[in-house]
Amino acid sequence: MTHHAQTPDTTPHAANRAANQAANRTTNHATARTTNRAANRARSRAAHRAANRGAALLLAGVGALCALCATGCGQVGEALGTSSDRYATACAVVIDGSGSGQEGPEGFDAEEKLNTALPRFLQDRECRTLAFAPITLASEFSDCQQETLDLDPDAEATDDREEVRAAWRAVAAEQARDLLACARRQQPAGSDVLGALDRISHAAPGGDEPFDVLVVSDFIQWDRSFQLRANELTTAESRTAAIDELADQGRLPGLPDTTTVFPSGYGMRFSDDPAEYEGFDAFWTELLEERVNTHVSFDYRQ
After folding, report:
1. How far is Cα 72 from Cα 40, in angstroms, rounded to an integer?
2. CATH code reported for the domain at 89-296
């Protein structure tokens, strides 16, 4: 088979077609370049407008913050629920569930003391948190417990701060009564005041922060290893010997020296003899203030 080479078309029609095709290609490239330039200019203008809007919003936010601070930066804190006037004191309540806490005249009436002293204590001391510990025969190991409460929590800016605090103090009082009821059910009964104070020491804040502890108890230590007897506290030597024995047994509470103990019901059922009461008071004064190095206040003694 024989192949013949094709001869190029050199007619006038062919030349016109070629010229038109070249013109179309030139027009298309020019149009594309124009479109791209327009798109780039539009993107640049949009980015510029977005940057201006962002800057305007930032300036408006800063202006609003400065306006609040101009009237007192505490208001900023209130809006965020973290005002600088919020309560800060770490507090605790220790509650005696032993038999001596029953209603009078046989006992010192722990529930009545609790209901009277605790609300005043929480308000007076401006307690931010409240931890709980029971007094039982073996206080450190008792399964009676309540979770630590935040008594001045974050709230909406429109909430009344005093109403929020009052509501949480009411919750605290209810939890304290529940703890007392639990401690009273523990058998056999006993009164390990030292163990309860050591247990509550774990709730103390660090550093130099104060720790205020309300102790609703007659402070008559009476557990398996130590019984506080009036005839053994009559002299300074006998009291010191008793405290030395407790220290040797590791029974002294580990409270920090920033602690203030507030007794309620202190010594009420110990003895009617003034001399015996003096020995009782001297014992606890030496133990708490000299050995453990805490402060003692009788603002809620009743």
Report:
1. 48
2. 3.40.50
